[in-house]
Amino acid sequence: MNPFFRLHSGLPREAPGDRASVDWAFTTGNVARDAKILDAGCGPGADIAALLENAPAGEVLAVDLHAPFIDAVKARWLDEPRVTARVQSMDEPEGPFDLVWAAGALYFLGIEAGLRHFRPHLAPGGVVAFSELAWLVDDPAPGLVWEMRKEYPEIGGAEALQARVMAAGYDICGLRVLDDAAWEAYYTPMEARIAALRPGADADLINVLNAAGEEIALWRENRDQLGYILAVARPA
């Protein structure tokens, strides 16, 4: 198995997030209880339960390109007819959707390109909710800026994120900074997985484990400067 996916196999989620973030997005976007929802880049489906509970008469289409993630979603929601899971790129489903939920995933398409793509696939009044890595302060440490721009060259603060959303032809319904609990929901299980895989790991896997550990340490040391912002946006 690919070392990256060996690390991520069995983890509950593929990005920081929690139930409170889903609840907030529904309220902020005024998403209907019978919403048709696209869980774009769903990973193992960490947010599906919260999406269904917020839309008790709604439906969720969960898509991801990694087949084992979709297998996990299908196994968990086998008896739930309101959930459909497909091995599919997030930019393929046509909708219309009342909510596109993209937890830590929209950057694969690019914020502006992704929002423009989803616009014709939204139902009237529909919204896109996505989380994006961002600066939480106006003057992050220069060394941190250098480190982050190697992986996220377009990283900016809340104002820059809002400008990108507006450039794509959307209005911002609201922005929310994900709290530490949302990050720990992602990183705490990953730390346990790293520790479990280290004994007997080959060089390729060790490199992946080390990189993941460094990522966790980077956030923990700089959580006051760096985080995820959850945005809810509606076509203008």
CATH architecture: 3-Layer(aba) Sandwich
Multimeric organization: single chain
For the sheet with most strands, the description reads: 7 strands, mixed
Percent of residues in beta strands: 15-25%
Radius of gyration: 18 Å
Q: Major sheet: order of its strands?
A: 3-2-1-4-5-7-6
Number of strands: 7
Summarize the amount of helix as a percent range. 40-55%
First and last CA, distance: 44 Å
CATH class assignment? Alpha Beta
* Gross morphology: globular
Q: Which secondary-structure class do the elements indicate? A: alpha/beta
CATH topology: Rossmann fold
**Average pLDDT rating:** 96
Work out the count of structural domains.
1
Write the CATH homologous superfamily.
Vaccinia Virus protein VP39
What are the defining features of this structure?
alpha/beta, 7-stranded mixed sheet, about 40% helix, ubiquinone, methyltransferase, SAM-dependent_MTases_sf, Ubiquinone/menaquinone biosynthesis methyltransferase, Methyltransf_12
Question: What can be said about this structure in brief?
Answer:
The chain has 236 residues and is an alpha/beta fold.
